[in-house]
Design a protein that fits this description.
alpha+beta, five-stranded antiparallel sheet, globular, Ferredoxin--nitrite reductase, chloroplastic, 4 iron, 4 sulfur cluster binding, EC 1.7.7.1, NIR_SIR_4Fe-4S
Length: about 600
């Protein structure tokens, strides 16, 4: 595989607070050290702290003595190293096989259903047999017009099966891909400076940063150098980094660059929080934030500060501690926070210190640079950059879905009005930077902005987020994207609001739509209607907050039939968000 250097660029309700989290004092995004009880991990016996993996022939594998009770995915990794599909060109031979022949053998069937996720390829066996979703690596959400055009050319050939989505990790996912095309697509990605490597399963996901990095007049630090370095480390400069591809579970990382916390540090496994120490810039660290069907937790302070030079060493040390010591049984209990709970934060920290280059990790600094009282700014619309005479324009991409022609038009606009650059956001929108102020008026009259991707969408549409849903995803219980748009449009006709209300939809408890951070969240489920018949429904969440006062929302009402969602949302908006019924507003006029 060709490579290239990266350019600098009944059970508890889903995600209710666990007993462990209820006993833990909630921590804000301030990573200043706080008093804590003696950690149970300190003094843990040597057997528990023995690394569970070892290096063999350049790959990291689970030791035989730790293989009892492991989950099926771990068995698939042991049976055949997933990274060999890329690093030893296994994809070339696999792509030549027919789906019929692939399904005849367990090893090749697991190749397409599981191992190809290490290459960012997800087989849509349930709804699009023989077709794949491909997830990229796009550090900081920064992409170019050339990259966008290439992705458009890939999905265009698949007709109605081809489309693309902006994800909740500032990333592209393209759909409709067929296996025989994969080797050429991978080469084409490399040719425009992209990769899909290590973007699925038990890997480090796309490094998230400030979507306004380098152009924001109020930014704390430009996050792009750090997210690029992280991506280079994670993927081994597109060549693969097998030292961190056998984690117990997926792992998310972000670098904070603004007071707005656009990056959502509280839901990442590792968040770099800007802080000064002894006159030097660096980062305090938060660890352990995650979502899962059975448990959701906000990140907590590691009581650690690193200089910019140690951004990669500490990331490596944390990943190695998680790789070496994380359990590999029940997949619902293998995220990094479970290991932190077991060892205690000090016990976990000591394991990180052991893996630092000089076994030194400074304690956190009290000089956090993120303002605690800061009203989160809206990046949609036209806003001045720090560069005099230039502005950026934030475009609303309804539920993140785009077609090939849309991507070509976005690329054209980025070239014609800006610098050929586009920024993806975690709210599934797109920012076009570096537009001369004299050209803003002409840009705003572009048909694409008038008819498709508005810089000034209605208030309820503005914060709408939706996962893939069961149109393509086999795990989703309900359809989400079209439903989210339809419900919001119906609600807009019934009520008037004076401020944005963020509504998130997710098709299943895996919560890719991040319903717990929304003002109002909808999680797909099966329920019963008023006649006792089974139907599609949602569990409704309320109270999620983002920014300096971040907080995960809680379940408000379970098992609401989808047909009853509109009146429920109207009621919530009126009672809790100050909305006014349209009929009453008209009567008062």
């Amino acid at each position: 595989m060709s490579s290239m250097s990266i350019r600098f660029l009944s059970s508890p309700l889903p995600c209710q607070k666990s007993s462990a989290s209820l006993s833990r004092t909630r921590v804000s995004t301030d990573a200043t050290p706080t008093a804590a009880p003696p950690p149970p991990g300190v003094g843990a016996d040597a057997v528990r702290l023995e690394p569970r993996v070892e290096e063999r022939d350049g790959y990291w594998v689970l030791k035989e003595k730790f293989r009892q009770g492991i989950n099926p995915q771990e068995k698939v990794k042991i049976e055949k190293e997933p990274m060999k599909l890329f690093m030893e060109n296994g994809i070339e031979e696999l792509a030549k096989m027919s789906m019929e022949d692939i399904d005849k053998a367990k090893v090749t069937k697991n190749d397409i259903d599981v191992r190809l996720k290490w290459l960012g390829l997800f087989h849509r066996r349930k709804h699009q047999y023989g077709r794949f979703m491909m997830r990229l690596k796009l550090p900081n959400g920064v992409t170019t017009s050339a990259q966008t055009r290439y992705l458009a050319s890939v999905i265009r050939k698949y007709g109605r099966d081809g489309c693309a989505d902006v994800t909740t990790r500032q990333n592209w996912q393209i759909r409709g891909v067929v296996l025989p095309d994969v080797p050429e697509i991978l080469k084409g990605l490399a040719g425009v400076g992209l990769t899909s490597l290590q973007s699925g399963m038990d890997n480090v996901r796309n490094p998230v940063g400030n979507p306004l990095a380098g152009i924001d007049p109020d930014e704390i630090i430009d996050t792009r150098p750090y997210t690029n370095l992280l991506s280079q480390f994670i993927t081994g400069n597109f060549r693969g980094n097998p030292a961190i591809t056998n984690l117990p579970r997926k792992w998310n990382v972000c670098v904070i660059g603004s007071h707005d916390l656009y990056e959502h540090p509280h839901i990442n496994d590792l968040a770099y929080m800007p802080a000064m120490k002894n006159g030097q810039f660096g980062f305090n660290l938060l660890v352990g934030g995650f979502f899962s069907p059975k448990r959701c937790e906000e990140a907590i302070p590691l009581d650690a500060w690193v200089s910019p030079d140690d951004v990669i060493p500490v990331c490596k040390a944390i990943l190695e501690a998680y790789r070496d010591l994380g359990t590999r049984g029940n997949r619902q209990k293998t995220r990094m926070m479970w290991l932190i709970d077991e060892l205690g934060i000090e016990g976990f920290r000591s394991e990180v210190v052991k893996r630092m280059p000089h076994q030194i990790l400074e304690r956190a600094s009290p000089e956090d640079l993120v303002h605690k009282q800061w009203e989160r700014r809206d990046y949609l619309g036209v806003h001045p950059q720090k560069q005099e005479g230039f502005s950026f324009v934030g475009l609303h991409i309804p539920v993140g879905r785009v077609q090939a022609d849309d991507m070509d038009e976005l690329a054209r606009i980025a070239d014609e009005y800006g610098s050929g650059e586009l920024r993806l956001t975690v709210e599934q929108n797109i920012v076009i930077p570096n537009i001369e102020n004299s050209r803003i008026g002409t840009l705003l009259n572009e048909p694409l902005l008038k008819n498709r991707f508005s810089p000034s969408p209605p208030l309820l549409m503005k914060g709408l987020v939706a996962c893939t849903g069961n149109q393509f995803c086999g795990q989703a219980i309900i359809e989400t994207k079209a439903r989210a748009l339809k419900v919001t449009e119906e609600v807009e006709r019934l009520v008037s609001v004076t401020r944005p209300v963020r509504m998130h939809w997710t098709g299943c408890p895996n919560t890719c739509g991040q319903v717990q951070v929304a003002d109002i969240g909808f999680m797909g489920c099966m329920t019963r209607d008023e006649n006792g018949k089974t139907c599609e429904g949602v569990d409704v969440f309320l109270g999620g907050r983002i920014g300096s006062d971040s907080h995960l929302g809680d379940v408000y009402k379970k098992g609401v039939p989808c047909k009853d969602v509109v009146p429920l949302v109207v009621d919530i908006l009126v009672k809790q968000f100050g909305a006014v019924l349209t009929e009453r507003e008209e009567a008062e006029d």
